[in-house]
Write a structure and sequence with these properties.
CATH superfamily: dinb family like domain
Radius of gyration: 17 Å
Number of strands: 2
Strand content: 5-15%
Pfam families: DUF1993 (PF09351)
Structural class: mainly alpha
Helix content: 55-70%
Protein name: DUF1993 domain-containing protein
Length: 171
């Protein structure tokens, strides 16, 4: 049986979309829990795990940034800029939907050869250079999953009844 090698597209875009959809479902469960328990949803939005970590909205924003930034860079596109002004669960859902919408515009052929593409990211501390494979596996994916996990952990910490299967999503 002949198998097709794993492509950069398959290792990135569908993974980002899947976990952004899972994150959307987790946020819905957070809103439902707040309603059921008579909790002001703002309490969930303002929660951070420790004082020096960002609150829930920033976790969603950074997951979005990691996904759209990686997809765009691997495809050789301009990274879409979002304002980071989400203040409600509806705003966060819109951010996730816009990110998924952008990712769905990226075609597999746009990522062909991207594993060796030279990519530079301008950071506050100065530029960082990667090849596409290193960007995906050592920078973007770890950042993406860190922020998705932290968002999950914030809601779990606040008593939202979610578990590993919510994080992993439907199979």
């Amino acid at each position: 049986m002949s198998q097709t090698p794993l492509s950069m597209y398959d290792a990135s875009i569908p993974v980002f979309i899947r976990y952004l959809n899972n994150l959307s479902t987790i946020l819905d469960k957070g809103v439902a829990h707040a309603k059921e328990q008579g909790i002001d949803p703002q309490e969930l939005l303002d929660t951070r795990l420790v004082a020096d970590m960002d609150a829930l909205p920033a976790q969603i924003q950074r997951a979005s940034d990691a996904a759209k930034g990686c997809g765009a860079r691997l495809a050789g596109l301009e990274v879409p800029s979002f304002a980071d002004d989400e203040a409600t669960f509806a705003d966060l859902q819109e951010r996730i939907a816009k990110t998924i919408g952008f990712l769905k515009t990226i075609r597999p052929e746009q990522l062909e050869g991207s594993e060796s593409r030279a990519i530079e990211i301008k950071m506050r501390t100065g530029p960082i250079s990667f090849d596409g494979k290193t960007l995906l596996l050592s920078f973007s994916m770890p950042n993406f999953f860190f922020h998705v996990t932290t968002a999950y952990d914030i809601l779990r910490h606040k008593g939202v009844p979610i578990g590993k299967n919510d994080y992993l999503g439907p199979r």
